[in-house]
Write a structure and sequence with these properties.
Elements (H helix, E strand, L loop, with lengths): L1 H13 L2 H9 L14 H7 L3 H9 L14 H8 L2 H9 L14 H7 L3 H9 L14 H7 L3 H8 L1
């Protein structure tokens, strides 16, 4: 199991479609988690491996799986700034309003890290702007704190 997990996670990280196909055709667990709770989908998305993410989703990857900190693939993509992968996850049924351990959401990550194209995308698909993190801060508060004027405008529109 350990070897299969390592191979699947590595193939997802580097976008090795041939290895992913071989493992998945051999009935590898598409939702296997590593020691940090990362699934192959979370890893593929965080590393901007769009084709790998498509393949994993087509093979039953849990689009809303959370790592040990409560982070999802969509949160990772919002942090890194990958709109094409975000679109795929949203189309795949990603919950836009899931919160990680400190209450953060994908929208909060996008606003905090200046990923304004993702702020727009998440808002377009109905992300909730009123969710508060454990400190009582909303995405707009976080954008303001970071001096992200564009995100603040989008969030308050």
């Amino acid at each position: 199991m350990q070897i299969e997990q390592e191979l699947l996670i590595h193939a997802a990280r580097v976008g090795d479609i041939a290895v992913l196909n071989e493992l998945l055709n051999g009935k590898a667990d598409v939702n296997i988690k590593d020691e940090k709770g990362y699934t192959p989908l979370i890893i593929a998305c965080y590393n901007n491996q769009l084709e790998a993410a498509k393949l994993l989703l087509a093979n039953g990857a849990d689009v809303n799986a959370q790592d040990l900190g409560g982070n999802t693939a969509l949160m990772g993509v919002a942090f890194k700034g990958y709109p094409a992968v975000a679109e795929l996850l949203i189309e795949g049924g990603a919950n836009l309003n899931l919160q990680h351990g400190n209450g953060g959401t994908a929208l909060m990550f996008a606003a905090m890290f200046g990923r304004n194209n993702l702020v727009e995308l998440l808002l377009l698909h109905g992300a909730d702007t009123n969710i508060c993190d454990v400190r009582g801060m909303r995405a707009a508060d976080l954008a303001a704190q970071q001096g992200n004027v564009k995100a603040l405008e989008l969030l308050e529109a």
